[in-house]
Amino acid sequence: MSKIAIEFKNVYKKFDGSDRYSVENVSLQIESGAFVTILGSSGCGKTTLLKLINRLYDATSGEIYCFGESVSELEPNAHRRGIGYVIQQTGLFPHKTVEQNISVVPKLLGWPEERKRNRVTELLRLVGLFPEAYRKRYPSKLSGGEQQRVGLARALAAGPSLLLMDEPFGAIDAITRRELQDEILRIKRETNATVVFVTHDVQEAFKLGDSVVVMHEGRVQQHASPYEIMLNPANAFVASLINSGNIFEKLKVMRVDGILESYEGVPNDAVSLRLGTSLADLLQAFISENVERINILDETGAIAGGVSFDNLRRMVGRSESHDYVI
Amino acid sequence: MIDYLQKHGDKVAALLTEHLQIVFFSVALAFALAMSLVILIYRFKFLYPIVINFFNICFSVPSLVLFTFLVPISGLGIKSAVIATVVYNLCVLTKNILAGFDSVDRAIVEAARGMGMTRKQTFLAVEFPLALPIIITGVKLAFIMSVSLVVLAATIGAGGMGALLFDGMRTKNWNKVIIGVIAVTVMVFIFNFIFSIFEKIAQKRAAGA
Predict the structure, then answer these.
(1) What residue numbers bound the domain in which B112 lies?
(2) What is the CATH number of the domain that holds B129?
(3) Can you tell me the distance from the alpha carbon of A283 to that of A201, in angstroms, rounded to the nearest whole number?
(4) Is the ipTM of this complex over 0.90?
(5) N or C: which end of chain A has fewer CB within 10 A?
(6) Structural domain tally of chain B?
(7) What is the pLDDT of residue A324?
(8) A256, A226 Cβ separation under 8 angstroms
(9) Is residue A264 scored above 80 in pLDDT?
(10) Cβ separation of A93 and B205 shorter than 8 Å?
(11) Following DSSP, what letter does each residue of B69-93 receive, concatenated?
């Protein structure tokens, strides 16, 4: 089941004219179908790490494998056509319509017109844009959020099994950003692609990632589930990044998925929340609904388990028992 | 003046044709050279400052000096006129074409490459259309400048409307002068008009409209 999509083996990257490594001794495995976020401040090497995967950069030493094949042995253009790529400034072609933009990779792959057209319709629906209203429009006539939806559709055009996203929502206002975050989670579920998502936003990284790679000064500081990172930050840097002193900040980024208890028969009046809900929202539900236990539903609406108030308190308390000198 | 045109119309037309031929040929040749040079500069970045500085120096040489300088090398006549005009056009065109490509948002190029477009596909389908408005501005400037340069080229015997103008001045034949002035002005005006339209179309296309 858990095939490896991307593997870094002792990868180093130094740019010409720089005296330090941008990426230093990175070894990392990303499972097929996973949603992995790479978190770090600017200059930490997170974007470089991403571009090593699609060979916009080549590693100075070390090996990178993409679905078992060493990327250094793949023809770069053919390799890239099989990977969806979304960047912050969208990179949409301003002189091409939405339809032409989305059709870039299918055109490179030589799809017939009919198939391209149908795919554009399908993708615009997938990203929540009404196909007939948008296909003939130019990017300059779209809002920032709409542009990024088109950018996402373009990246998904040829049905890639891997999606690389480089701070895609960085330039978008907070409300639209939250909307797009929910969309990308839904799209990820529907397409089942492996997603590698670079961000400097802690909340975004923890909300989206099944696992989070924390980068600092070119090195991977920790690669673990959001929950694990919150409970056991690997070092002082990670601890400071997640702001370990502030309980409420933690609750905002921790998800209910990590403290799920098995289903043990639920009272009729139980309140329900969905998987992926933050612990902050869970706490709020406990207080406002005044209940002892809350059901957690999966995407299909079936009960995945439950959480009791005691359990929440115990878990949060445990994560507070660690002390770090920063 | 009308009388003069009726009498020597064919001669004036021949000079005008000659003038335009030199202009078109010089701009076309300079454009082809400038484009190749820009592609070369993009492959070998270290050439960028060298080429720009060299052209800046060339461009600061007064045109009459360059024409005279060329006479012992390539002789009197059209050959020297074309060489000098091409050199000036190269300065203007290379700088404008480079400015055009520099104006293309790097993120767009990166997205193109990241999606697996080859260098050539990226150049033809993305960079060139987006750089086109500024390139056309360069071509417009080159045409306008060439019209005046070729006037001066008459001093080294290249013919064209300059021959008529200078001849008229020397012999105090004001008909010739007036016809020369009007012809040159109208040429500049027409080039400016036509290329401004192309410029607008390219701008609209590049911005998506």
Answers:
(1) 2-206
(2) 1.10.3720.10
(3) 23
(4) no
(5) N
(6) 1
(7) 42
(8) no
(9) no
(10) no
(11) HHHHHH-SSHHHHHHHHHHHHHHHH
Question: Could A78 and B116 be called an inter-chain contact, meaning their C-beta atoms sit closer than 8 Å?
Answer: yes
Closest CA of chain B from A99, distance in Å = 13
How does pLDDT run across B158-175, given as a tens digit for each residue?
Answer: 888 999 999 899 999 888
DSSP-derived letter for residue A311 is H
* Euclidean distance between CA atoms A171 and A255, whole angstroms: 25
The answer to whether A95 contacts B105, with C-beta atoms less than 8 Å apart, is: no
Average pLDDT, chain B: 91
- CA dist A233 and B37 (Å) reads 55
Name the amino acid, one letter, at A125.
R
pLDDT of residue A263: 66
- Are B130 and A108 in contact (CB < 8 Å)? no
Q: Which helix (H) or strand (E) holds B189?
A: helix B174-207
Cβ of B107 within 8 Å of Cβ of A89? The answer is: yes
- How many Å apart are CA B151 and CA B28, to the nearest integer? 18
Selecting from A104, A139, A141 the residue whose C-beta is nearest the C-beta of B115 gives: A104
Question: A20-24 — which CB contacts under 8 Å span 24+ positions?
Answer: A20/A218, A21/A60, A21/A218, A22/A48, A22/A218, A23/A48, A23/A49, A23/A52, A23/A59, A23/A218, A24/A217, A24/A218, A24/A219
pLDDT category of residue A83 using cuts at 50, 70 and 90: very high
Say how far apart CA A221 and CA A213 lie, in whole Å: 7
Helix axes B2-43, B161-171, angle to 10 degrees: 130
Size of interface A-B (CB pairs under 8 A): 75
Q: Which residues of A touch B207 (CB under 8 A)?
A: 94-95, 138, 140
Residue A251's contacts (CB-CB under 8 Å, 6 or more residues apart) are: A278, A279, A280, A282, A283, A316
Euclidean distance between CA atoms A233 and A226, whole angstroms:
10
Determine the pLDDT at residue B98: 94
Instruction: Give whole-number Cα distances, A232 to A5, A237, A307, A315, B106, in Å.
Output: 26, 12, 21, 12, 40
